[in-house]
Design goal:
Length: 156
């Protein structure tokens, strides 16, 4: 079965009544955890982006505390797990400033964690890739906002 295009779905949603749309959203949330997380973000957290960013930062701190640093392999796996979660949260938001703030905080947390970044090429590349993503997202923001983040980026 071939799924309908986004334009077709948009047209069909406009023809449905609000009660039926609510039922469709609830049914959609039942099938995948990602759908449920996105619905939760849109309903409860999208209105207060600053609180959402703070919650993500708190989660980063918790996950960084749980990383096993006894071996570089486990540290790498822990960082990859954190990045998967962060990228999902960033994708839900869709806001470039949120992306910049979250990735900056992640890079600062990695730097401050004591994980020997330069002992593993995978971790080094992961860290550098995040810095590139920050620069790319920052370039799409307003010049005043870019200036605010420049000093933090130079520290990385």
């Amino acid at each position: 079965m071939k799924p309908a295009s986004l334009a077709e779905i948009r047209k069909e949603l406009k023809t449905r009544d609000p009660k039926e749309l609510a039922e469709l959203c609830l049914r959609l949330g039942r099938f995948k955890k990602d759908n449920k997380e996105l619905l939760s973000y849109l309903l409860f957290e999208a209105q207060d982006e600053a609180a959402y960013i703070e919650a993500i930062k708190y989660d980063i701190d918790d996950m960084m505390d749980e990383i096993n640093t006894s071996h570089i392999y486990y540290a790498k796996k822990g960082l990859q797990k954190i990045l998967r979660q962060l990228n999902k949260n960033i994708r839900y938001s869709g806001n470039k400033q949120t992306e910049v703030e979250v990735l900056l905080y992640f890079c600062q947390a990695v730097r401050d964690s004591g994980i020997p970044i330069h002992r593993s090429t995978v971790i080094t590349n992961m860290y550098e890739r995040q810095k590139v993503k920050i620069q790319k997202a920052l370039s799409s923001l307003h010049e005043d906002i870019q200036a605010d983040y420049e000093s933090v980026i130079e520290e990385l």
